Amino acid sequence: MSNELYIRSDRIFTADPEKPVLFDGYIKIVDDKIDALLTVNEADIPDGVKVHDYTGHLVTPGFIDAHTHLVHAGSRHHELGAKLRGESYLDIHEMSGILYTVRKTRDASYEALYERSKATLQRMLACGVTTLEAKSGYGLDKETEIRCLEVARDLNGYQWIDIESTFMGAHAIPPEFEGRPDDYLDYLIKDVLPVIKRKRLARFVDVFCEDKFFTIEQSERFLKAAKEMGFLLKIHADEITSSGGAELAAKLGCVSAEHLMAVSDKGIKDMAKAGTVACVLPNTTYFLMEDTYAPVKKMLKEGVTLAISTDYNPGSSPTENIQFAMALAVFMMKMNPVDVLLAVTRGAAAAIDRHDIGQLKEGYLADIFVSYARDPDQLFYRPGSIQTKRVFKKGKMVYRGTAVPHILH
Ligand code: IZC
Ligand code: ZN
Description:
By secondary structure, the chain is α/β, with parallel strands linked by helices. It has 15 helices and 16 strands. The protein has an eight-stranded parallel β-sheet. A four-stranded mixed β-sheet has the order 3-2-1-4, with no helix packed on it. Strands 5-14-15-16 form a four-stranded antiparallel β-sheet, with no helix packed on it. Strand 9, helix 7 and strand 10 (232-237) form a beta-alpha-beta unit. Helix 6 packs parallel to helix 7 (216-228). The chain is globular, with a radius of gyration of 21 Å. The mean pLDDT is 96. It binds 2H-imidazol-4-ylacetic acid (IZC) and zinc ion (ZN). Residues 67, 69, 236, 311, 313 line the site of zinc ion. 2H-imidazol-4-ylacetic acid binds at residues 69, 97-98, 101, 208, 236, 313-316.
């Protein structure tokens, strides 16, 4: 017996380019998928079939957080004093940074990592996230990288949330390989990537192409090796310094290039031509106490597909709240609310190579966010306040907003 249900709203943001920005009607759901979008006149709802009436509420595809470092241990709040004294991310890396989290993560058991990541997922779900990407990269050795990816694999499907995994062993150079980044990359290519592939622990591979981490040449060598093994590619590019990361992403056919605060004009044009998605992470600029946000207006003008994500990680964005990233996109990057919504739905789906989510459209998964707000402008008009009324994942209601009333109109 198939399970049928209808969601009614007069303001459905479908993210479908063939539909009006706000659609007035019903979403017909059968089992885990959207069967049809029907206008009020078209809908002929049989007796006894469940209808959730969200008239007056903005309904959108579930949000997709396309860039997170979900699985890790420890907290780096001891870095705050140095940040306030004006020390940069790269300075702090010398005394704490990624390698601090690596020590904590190597010491953490599978169970500890699982419980912590599960709690993070619960908070993400409360923000309306129904699918996310999770990068490894706090193990930097075979055993711990695999443990972190296994945690992500085993949490895939928790509350029906989908997790897409990325292997990011090339996140930093571990102490055992200090001063020998090429030897470390050889180790990853020969000893680790084949195991990740065989165990199917990740679809994507990512590299931190940045001063003090991996150069353009090293990133290219590593990504090419991963591509030959059949991985899809991502790159942390032009985050702090402009090094040609976006150009490299386009040249290698990366699915996405991420960060891009320091991207060049040529990099933007190359990405547009190659169809590489720009995954921008405004929480990170904010948390690094910088004022250079990724040049999203230029990217949109050149026709680059945009995704906006949290970059949830313990060093440069310890917040799992995608609604905060969305608010920063409006208030700091001055993006219009409709473009922001597209970037956490259709654009973010493209960033993780998913073609069954990110739109409310026939055949797509019934992943749905219901807001307390009435329309996109109102959704962003109370930054810092979580606007989640309901979340449906694969046709199931998996989250109900708090008992604290939100009366917005
Ligand atoms: O732990 O600092 N930028 N990777 C690249 C990070 C930030 C995570 C961290
Ligand atoms: Zn990142």
